[in-house]
Amino acid sequence: MKKDGPGLLHNRAAAIFHAGEDAVRGLQESLGHRFADLSLLACALTHPSFPSRANNQRLEFLGDAVLQLCVSELLYGGGNDKEGRLTFKRQRLVCEEALADVARGIGLGPCLLMEDSFRAQGGDAQDSVLADAMEAVLAAVYLDGELLSAREAVRKLWGDRISSAEPNLDPKGALQAWAAGKGLPEPEYRLTGEEGPPHARTFSITLCLDGREISRGQGKSKKLAQQDAARAALKTLEEEQREG
Predict the structure, then answer these.
(1) CB burial readout 24-56, b (16+ within 10 A) else e
(2) What interhelical angle do 127-163 and 21-31 show, nearest 10?
(3) Looking at the DSSP assignment, which residues form a beta bridge with residue 219?
(4) Domains, in order of start, for the chain
(5) Which residues contact 200 (CB under 8 A, 6 or more apart)?
(6) pLDDT digits (tens, 9 = 90+) for 158-194
(7) Which of 10, 12, 36, 239 matches a 20 to 30 Å C-alpha distance to 225?
(8) How far, in Å, CA of 49 to CA of 198, rounded?
(9) Do residues 129 and 112 make contact, with C-beta atoms less than 8 angstroms apart?
(10) Is 64 considered catalytic here?
(11) H helices within 164-216, ranges in order?
């Protein structure tokens, strides 16, 4: 069977080619959604490294918004937390680490269509790859079954996490709260470097606050590099406060 036709990967055969029909069926059961249009799922499973003119990057963009809305709804209806606590809980629930963990829980990695060499180097186990694919899959559910289906998928996959979510701040959240308390603008994260092969990129971030460079950070994804920079910034600001 050919991996790709004259350009379009979006068909049932393409999804089954790599993962197998049982895996695709199992994925749909995990989502609690049976696709009417399997081409949407095939697109969501297609990593940019795969030799195709279509991949899951556009769906990832949409899925981010779908997840934010569904998680926000579930948090809002689950108690009487104030806005700040709700915001920090949501941040925890939609971060890259949480998305990747959910993706692993439903066996998403082995279902992804990607370049063989990228998979051999562990590409299908990377947090960033899994998180992006999870967002893309949620977008596919939304497009195939509208908001009700997406909401139910998020409820099924995130339900326990939502009920036990804690509003503890990660470094980015803590820095943002500190800046707000001082009447300063939000921290600015500038991408200043990328190194390494596609399957093992290292990103460099420079963090500026109120026009001043405060710190720099690195990580295997942009989000992790931002967290590293925020962690360093908090340490620097704490030292400055202690000395001043």
Answers:
(1) beebeebbebebeebbbbbbbbbbbbbebebbb
(2) 40
(3) 203
(4) 12-163 (1.10.1520.10), 171-243 (3.30.160.20)
(5) 121, 220
(6) 988 888 877 666 788 788 878 887 888 989 999 999 9
(7) 239
(8) 9
(9) yes
(10) yes
(11) 171-181
Q: Is the dihedral of CA 43, 48, 52, 58 positive or negative?
A: positive
For the segment 27-61, what is each residue's pLDDT rounded down to a tens digit?
999 999 999 998 899 999 999 998 877 899 999 99
H/E segment holding residue 202: strand 202-209
Q: Which of 60, 64, 127, 132 is catalytic?
A: 64
> Exactly one of 60, 127, 135, 144 is catalytic; which is it?
135
Q: What is the reported pTM?
A: 0.69
CB 1 within 8 A of CB 13: yes
Distance of alpha carbon 11 from alpha carbon 151, whole angstroms: 25
What is the dihedral sign for C-alpha 61, 62, 65, 66?
Answer: negative
Helices 127-163 and 96-105: crossing angle in degrees, nearest 10, is 90
Catalytic, 135? Answer yes
What one-letter code names the amino acid at 26? G
Helix then strand then coil, in percent of the chain rounded to 5, is 60, 10, 25
